[in-house]
Design brief:
The chain has 112 residues and is mostly helical. It has one domain. Helix content is 84%, strand content 0%. It has 3 helices and no strands.
Length: 112
């Protein structure tokens, strides 16, 4: 009787572990995909920002084209992109957190 009860509990724990493992794996895949998207976008922004000194010189600006200048513009562009992504992610999270309060404080329309 006790042995059957313990085996039943053990089997339920194994099933719960399997489900929990599947959920954690699914969340990991989503986070890895989002991180991959962000890195690809950062690389694209870096390449575009690195091209800025060349384009600026074509428009008459006197920016010296050196390796350090090109790398500085590329790194600066990537840093600005990560700052933008961080701030926009924070705004999205704040909107999600405060969305229930919109319903509570919504002004009622007056009937004419």
């Amino acid at each position: 009787m006790v042995l059957e009860f313990l085996t039943q509990i053990f089997s339920q724990l194994q099933q719960a572990n399997s489900i929990l493992l599947f959920i954690v794996f699914f969340v990991f895949l989503i986070l890895a995909y989002k991180l991959f998207q962000t890195v690809i976008k950062a690389l694209i922004i870096g390449v575009i920002a690195a091209a800025f000194p060349f384009v600026a010189n074509m428009f008459g600006f006197n920016i010296p084209i050196t390796l350090s200048n090109v790398l500085w513009f590329a790194i600066f562009g990537v840093v600005l992109y990560f700052a933008y992504a961080f701030i926009s992610g924070g705004v999205k999270i704040i909107k999600i957190i405060f969305s229930p309060f919109k319903v509570l404080f919504r002004k009622k329309e007056k009937k004419k």
